Predict the structure.
Amino acid sequence: MNLAIEKEAEGTGQGGGLLRVSAEKVSRLMDLVGELSLSVSEVVRSPDLSGAGIDLTEFEKSAHRLTMVVREVQDAAAELRLVPVGEVFRRLRRMVRELERQTGKKIDLILEGEETAIDKVVSDRLYEPLVHVVRNSADHGLESPEEREAAGKSETGRIVLAAAQVGSEIQITVKDDGRGLDRERILARARERGLVGAGVEPDDAALWQLILEPGFSTAEQVTALSGRGVGMDVLNSTMKDLRGHITIDSQYGRGCRVLLSIPVTLAFLDCLVMRLGRRLFATPVDVVADIFQPSADQIMEIPDGDGDGGEMVRVRESYVPICRLPQFYGEDCTELTPLDRSIVIVFNTSLGPVGLPVDEMLNQQQVVMKPLTGQLENIRASWGCALLGTGEVALVLDCERLAKKRAF
């Protein structure tokens, strides 16, 4: 596998050229840069430097400059593995032509943001899940030419495939102007499978997330294109591996939009590091909405259907549900720190905000990400582990899955 990297000649009068480099070599470089970052942090934070009577002013200046240079090297190394997302989009255009033939529908695929750069690792894994999303739009979403004309629409259905960089995320949108999701049908199937209780009326955002469950399908019969309930499950699984999340929005009769949000790079992550008990956790900076210590009048306890107490905290004019990590992981919860003595971090998720109580906020830093392997890979709501500059390891939390526990 090769990766084309464009280098521009500066001040030589020469034109730019392409240098073909093995993607494995670029990945190896990024691993070494990560190790370099950790080594620099270990030196800067060495306990041997804390001796009394030592003037470290010049050392601290040099250490700061070194840290900034390493940060720039990390960013430059991450950029080497970026490729245009248009390479994936253009492959989907050929597939849509085949879908037109199979379904008898007229489909206009519109591509936007093809020049948006995305990590090569993400690009290699993105095609298959996008195939399922576009196929669902063509098969389930778009109506036949006759149905569209009867509904006052153009006989040609539109599917927009767009990409854009928003902050440190790449957002890929698949949007159609078809019939949209059938709320009643999805809710009935969810209750049939026991995903939603008989008396529960979830909001649309929470309900749409259920179509990502393994084997979930509302199709009455299996066809060559759909009905097995595996396509969106593949998408969900891939997005979890890529540390991304999915947002679904739909209006019946007007179409559906699937938004995929993925980090620009998978190697390094800007995180907030926090402590709960003796454990360290980290979360991406981008999902943090608020950090505060609540007062007693901001806290509300509510009973749930099983008789267990739930907690909410008021943030300005709305209440945010609380997720306690010991409860989430099924641990002993007899000595939980009261909320008014905890620091609450509020995260933005596709299911709404969720609050996480911790004992201490440590700092913000760019961390080196490593996947969890072996028995650790089954830890719930985790993207992997973060190697900190102190040599310690923090568990990186997936706030989307923390919020999902509070959805129903």
Remarks:
- The radius of gyration is 24 Å.
- The CA atoms of residues 62 and 327 lie 45 Å apart.
- The chain has three domains: 2-80, 83-263, 268-404.
